[in-house]
Amino acid sequence: MKIDGTPWRTLWPIDDGRAVAIIDQTLLPHRFETRELHSLEAAAEAIATMRVRGAPLIGATAAYGLALGLREDPSDAGLRRARERLLATRPTASNLAWALRRIIPAVQALPEAQRFDAAFARAGALCDEDVAINEAIGDHGLGVIRDLLAARGDDGPFHILTHCNAGWLATVDWGTALAPIYKAFDAGIDVHVWVDETRPRNQGAALTAWELAAHGVPHDVIVDNAGGHLMQHGQVDLVITGTDRTVRSGDVCNKIGTYLKALAARDNGVPFYVALPGPTIDWALADGVRDIPIEERDPREVTHIQGLDEDGGVLREVRLTPPGVSARNFAFDVTPARLVTGLITERGVCEASEAGLLGLYPDGAFEAGAA
Amino acid sequence: MKIDGTPWRTLWPIDDGRAVAIIDQTLLPHRFETRELHSLEAAAEAIATMRVRGAPLIGATAAYGLALGLREDPSDAGLRRARERLLATRPTASNLAWALRRIIPAVQALPEAQRFDAAFARAGALCDEDVAINEAIGDHGLGVIRDLLAARGDDGPFHILTHCNAGWLATVDWGTALAPIYKAFDAGIDVHVWVDETRPRNQGAALTAWELAAHGVPHDVIVDNAGGHLMQHGQVDLVITGTDRTVRSGDVCNKIGTYLKALAARDNGVPFYVALPGPTIDWALADGVRDIPIEERDPREVTHIQGLDEDGGVLREVRLTPPGVSARNFAFDVTPARLVTGLITERGVCEASEAGLLGLYPDGAFEAGAA
Predict the structure, then answer these.
(1) I want to staple A226 with a disulfide (CB 3.0 to 4.6 A). Which of A222, B70, B99, B106 is the partner?
(2) Is the dihedral of CA A160, A165, A169, A175 positive or negative?
(3) Which among A285, A272, A326 is positioned nearest to A163, based on CA atoms?
(4) What are phi and psi of A165, to 5 degrees?
């Protein structure tokens, strides 16, 4: 997507294909800075500290991280070490493991001297594939919006609520949940987005608001508590979120708080759709609430917050809680399939169920059986 | 309740009954400062800027504010002006109007020279009554906790989730939702509290965490997004919240986001109770979602946040969002009676329904008819 008229991706090769650069998302929306990743450790650190975040972008960065690890040590041991280091960064998103599975077998079959170049090229191909997938999600999601608009039968603004950031910043380009919104806006539909701030890391207030503004899409930031009230009062026509992992039953793991919005959508008859690229489907699991491991992060993300001190124009961290308070920080929750109106994928829209997913991904059955 | 072993209330008469003092809650948990209110305007400002907050404490402060207004101008016109100034501070809580209704007719019947002293004395009586009401809520809520513990049949920690601050800081003393928790803790029950931080003003992270710590009650601060996940995983035995206004059907208006927690409680079979003093019942209204006016506050409360800069030990405000972002800030939502397991009042526990409320407040019917 564009920033001030210039097209960007969230990561891109530099140094004639010997390293990659990223947008450091921990500084947005206050500072726009890029950062070069020249080593496996730099890539792993960027994922773990959320300089890059969002399931698809984590997968793409991990793919390049694996390549950078092979530049340092192309042996089988080096490959194993790189894989383990990257898998340890974030436990919930399934794209990370998927991206590594896509690259490792092919690379392992090669002589050590060819491994780095081959892995780097495959990481690039995986990025291009992500962009194509997300644009297709946007097209199918646009169909959902058009259908809902037609059913509503009036011309007022079409209000979409989204949680966290599943925009182009969460992917290589386009985004997942925001791709249909960009498509609708570009098609001249009068969309307005309710942006959940998404505590504790405020990816909505910081990233979704920033990228929607850069593209010119009308939006309002709200606290995560507000969505139910808006839905009770007819102010939400559609909820779309992304997902970090969808299990084969259609249960959807996404940023903590998504489940609460799905409950409110159900209680008020608001359609609740989840946008996902095929690689986020985990065919091995059936019960998302029971089986998906939920990352618990540093409580400091709850007790402290970073923002811009407008007096000095500098970023500062302030403490919100009493000194020494105990806090817990669960990063994701799982929305049961029964609350999901539909899944928007690059292959089309389906019911959130094993039958629905298998209708679009008949090959998924084999992966599920093999797991 | 106690701070460092010393008993406090949230407001108290000073200057031989010519003014009152409050704890400035906008500075908690980082600074503990008291503030004197010597005028109607000071009282109105303290309510509007939330130096005092919580429906019962707003009512008590408004009562003293009315008295201070009468000290400045004891005429009927002065009385009217004071009433209007105070009613304009916060539109949602019904205690404010209730407190004024309790005092105005009696004072208006007096000669001007006696009005201030009479109003001041009645404000003090109203405060004592609030303390007695809240302690009775605590006793009845303790019964609910004992029953749930007995039904569970094991000795592990009893986890209670609460939203916002309905503790002693929200009342004159004891609190509403927290009164049963203090009673249970004092009775030796192994309670643990999940404290919703309660964006945008963070009354949970700032005030509930502070007062629970001062009393020694085990607790963890969580983001507002986390409650559904905890309930899905059996980590919540009971939800108790306060309320700013309960209509006669049992619909409950409380801090924005309460409705989302009630939905999650229902979806997971977790009991959801609301603690309320009789004066928060609005007998005139029947449909809370449709009829209760929801205060919309300054968007700056969403886009900016105040905390302690630990480097300098000073309070600072930082901006969380991109510059110039649009935000909306709805302060309350309404939880329909169908999601409320029971109402805990000073007269006992009842079903969230007109029949339930009339069982405890048979006189309520007259007020409803008269409205």
Answers:
(1) A222
(2) negative
(3) A272
(4) -125, 110
- Are the CB atoms for A356 and A248 separated by under 8 Å? no
CA A366 to chain centre: 26
**Residue A302 to residue B307: CA distance in whole angstroms:** 12
- Rounded to the nearest angstrom, the minimum Cα separation between A369 and chain B is 28
B267 touches A: beta carbon within 8 Å: yes
Nearest CB to A318: which of B229, B267, B318?
Answer: B318
pLDDT, one tens digit for every residue, chain B (371 residues):
878 778 899 999 999 999 999 999 999 999 999 999 999 999 999 999 999 998 899 999 999 999 999 999 999 999 999 999 999 998 776 789 989 999 999 999 999 999 999 999 999 999 999 999 999 999 999 999 999 999 998 888 999 999 999 999 999 999 999 999 999 999 999 999 999 999 999 999 999 999 999 999 999 999 999 999 999 999 999 999 999 899 999 999 999 999 999 999 999 999 999 999 998 899 999 999 999 999 999 999 999 999 999 998 899 999 999 999 999 999 999 999 999 999 999 999 999 999 999 999 998 765 544 33
Cα(A328)–Cα(B158) distance, rounded to whole angstroms?
Answer: 17
* Pair of tokens at residue B318: 């930082």
User: What's the pTM?
Assistant: 0.93
- Residue of A244, A251, A282, A333 marked active site: A244
The one-letter amino acid at A130? D
Asked if B198 is an interface residue toward chain A (Cβ–Cβ < 8 A), one would say yes
Which residue has tokens 């094991």? B154
Q: Of A177, A148, A159, whose CA–CA distance to A280 is shortest?
A: A177
Q: Residue A186 catalytic?
A: no
User: What's the rounded Cα separation, in Å, for the pair B164 and B36?
Assistant: 25
Residues of B in Cβ contact (< 8 Å) with A221: 302-303, 321, 325-328
Cα separation, A5 vs A46, in Å, equals: 27
Residues 6+ apart with CB under 8 A from B100: B62, B63, B66, B83, B86, B87
On whether any CB of chain B is under 8 Å from the CB of A34, the answer is: no
Q: At what angle do helices B55-72 and B94-108 cross, to 10 degrees?
A: 30
- Closest residue to B221, CB basis, from A222, A327, A333: A327
Give chain B's length: 371
A276 closest CA partner among A252, A260, A255: A252
* B255 contacts in chain A (CB < 8 Å): 225
CATH topology of domain A2-128: Four Helix Bundle (Hemerythrin (Met), subunit A) (1.20.120)
Is A230's Cβ below 8 Å from some Cβ in B?
A: yes
* Domain boundaries along the sequence of chain A: 2-128, 140-360
Could you give the ipTM of this predicted complex? 0.92
Q: Are B148 and B36 in contact (CB under 8 A)?
A: no
